[in-house]
Amino acid sequence: MPLSDHEQKLLQQMEQALYAEDPKFATTLTGRGRGVGSLSRALVGLGSVVVGLTLVIVGIAAGPLLWVSVIGFVVMFGGVVFAVAAPARTAGSRSSTPSRRPGSSGQGRGRSSFVQRMEERWERRSEGGGY
């Protein structure tokens, strides 16, 4: 069932408010932070996990070589973290997020302002006032 025009406008307003309040979280939810490099990061991470698992098995099979198993575990853990974590962004590379509303910096307001606006809208809607 498709959304009505009013519902689409409400959804768009909520998305814009989310981007204005917490753009990093919104980008994480939409998956826009992932780029072309994510496949190569996954492959490098997978390779590290395989190498680490091999080291763990060799450390266990060789007997008293506990340190080889520990190194293997660290390599595996590092590979998983590398594959899952988002790449660090430089100052020049920014994701494409919607621009903020004119005149709103977002720094002087707390997180509760978003919730307060949504509560006010809900009260107006429930009272029949609409938008």
The chain-level structural class is mainly alpha
Helix percent reads 55-70%
Q: Tell me the Rg in angstroms.
A: 24 Å
Q: Give the overall pLDDT as a whole number.
A: 75
The largest sheet, given as strand count, sense and whether it forms a barrel, is: none
User: Strand portion, in percent?
Assistant: under 5%
Oligomeric assembly? single chain
Label the overall shape: elongated
* Strand count: 0
Brief account:
By secondary structure, this protein is mainly alpha-helical. It is 64% helix and 0% strand.
What this model shows, in words?
The chain is an all-alpha fold and 131 residues long. The chain has helices at residues 5-21, 23-30, 37-61, 66-84, 112-126. Mean pLDDT is 75; it is low at 94-108. The chain crosses the membrane at residues 42-60, 66-86. Keywords: Membrane, Transmembrane, Transmembrane helix. Residues 117-131 have a biased composition (Basic and acidic residues). It holds the Pfam family DUF3040.
